[in-house]
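Quick one, C-alpha cells below. Sequence please?
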C-alpha cells in the first residue's frame, strides 16, 4: 500500500505554531505519510528540522525566495550556501522569479536565482522553483543552468508545462485544481505525463475545495489527489504509487 504525500508545505510557518501536533496527527490519520518542509528563512529552517512524527517521513528544503532578494547580502547568501551543502538539506528551494509583486528588481532576482541553480548543479541537489508572471525568464534560466527539479504550484499554461517536462523537470499541482473555473490546472494535468506529476498543498495557502476559506494543511492534499484521479479516470492506489515513485526519484529515498 502506498500513501499520499505533500511535496511542498510550510508547516514550519507561524500559522501552525499553536496546533502543530494536531496538524501532524491529521496528516497521519489521512495517510499523508511523506512531506517536504519548505523554508525561506534560516530560523524557519531550524524549526522545521525539529518537526517530528513517528508515522511521517519529512524532507527539508531551503532557498532564497525571489521576494527577498533585495535583503540578501553576500554574508547572508553564504550562510544559505553552507546549509545547502549539508546532507540534511534535501533540496534547494523555493527559489525562482516573481514579477507579480516587484517588477523593479528583475535583474537582481535573476542573478540570485541563477546563482542558486549553479549551486544545485554543483551540489547535485534538486531545485524547487517558484515562478509568477515570469515564466519565460524562469524557463530560460532553468534551461541554461539545468538541474533536477520541480515547478512548484504550477500555474501557467499546459504548453509551457510540456516544455519544462522536456527539460526533465516535474510539475507540481496544488489545491487550485479543485477550485471553480480551474480550467488551466485541469488542462495541465491532462498534458503532463503521470511520471512527471507531483501534488502539494503549499499550506497554509491555496486551500482546496471543500476546505477553501480555511487555513490549508498537509492532510488536505488528499482532496487534490482525489480530484486529479477523478478528472483523469485513474485508480487512486495506482496514482499514489506513481506519486511516491516520482517523489523518490526527485528527492531520494
Amino acid at each position: 500500500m502506498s500513501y499520499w504525500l505533500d511535496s511542498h508545505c510550510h508547516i514550519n510557518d507561524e500559522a501552525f505554531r499553536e496546533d502543530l501536533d494536531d496538524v501532524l496527527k491529521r496528516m497521519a490519520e489521512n495517510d499523508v505519510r511523506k512531506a517536504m518542509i519548505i523554508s525561506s528563512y534560516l530560523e524557519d529552517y531550524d524549526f522545521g528540522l525539529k518537526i517530528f512524527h513517528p508515522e511521517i517521513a519529512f524532507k527539508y528544503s531551503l532557498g532564497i525566495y525571489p521576494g527577498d532578494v533585495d535583503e540578501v547580502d553576500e554574508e547572508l547568501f553564504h550562510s544559505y550556501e553552507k546549509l545547502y551543502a549539508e546532507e540534511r538539506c534535501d533540496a534547494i528551494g523555493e527559489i525562482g522569479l516573481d514579477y507579480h509583486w516587484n517588477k523593479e528588481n528583475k535583474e537582481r532576482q535573476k542573478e540570485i536565482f541563477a546563482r542558486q541553480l549553479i549551486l544545485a548543479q554543483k551540489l547535485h541537489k534538486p531545485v524547487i522553483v517558484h515562478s509568477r508572471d515570469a515564466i519565460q525568464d524562469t524557463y530560460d534560466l532553468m534551461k541554461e543552468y539545468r538541474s533536477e527539479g520541480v515547478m512548484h504550484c504550477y500555474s501557467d499554461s499546459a504548453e509551457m508545462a510540456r516544455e519544462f517536462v522536456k527539460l526533465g523537470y516535474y510539475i507540481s499541482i496544488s489545491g487550485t485544481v479543485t477550485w471553480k473555473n480551474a480550467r488551466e490546472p485541469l488542462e495541465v494535468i491532462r498534458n503532463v505525463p503521470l511520471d512527471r506529476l507531483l501534488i502539494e498543498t503549499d499550506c497554509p495557502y491555496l486551500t482546496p475545495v471543500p476546505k477553501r476559506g480555511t487555513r490549508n494543511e498537509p492532510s488536505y492534499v488528499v482532496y487534490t489527489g482525489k480530484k486529479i484521479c477523478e478528472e483523469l479516470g485513474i485508480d487512486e492506489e495506482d496514482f499514489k504509487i506513481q506519486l511516491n515513485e516520482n517523489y523518490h526519484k526527485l528527492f531520494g529515498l
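The two ends are 16 Å apart (CA to CA). The chain has nine helices and eight strands.
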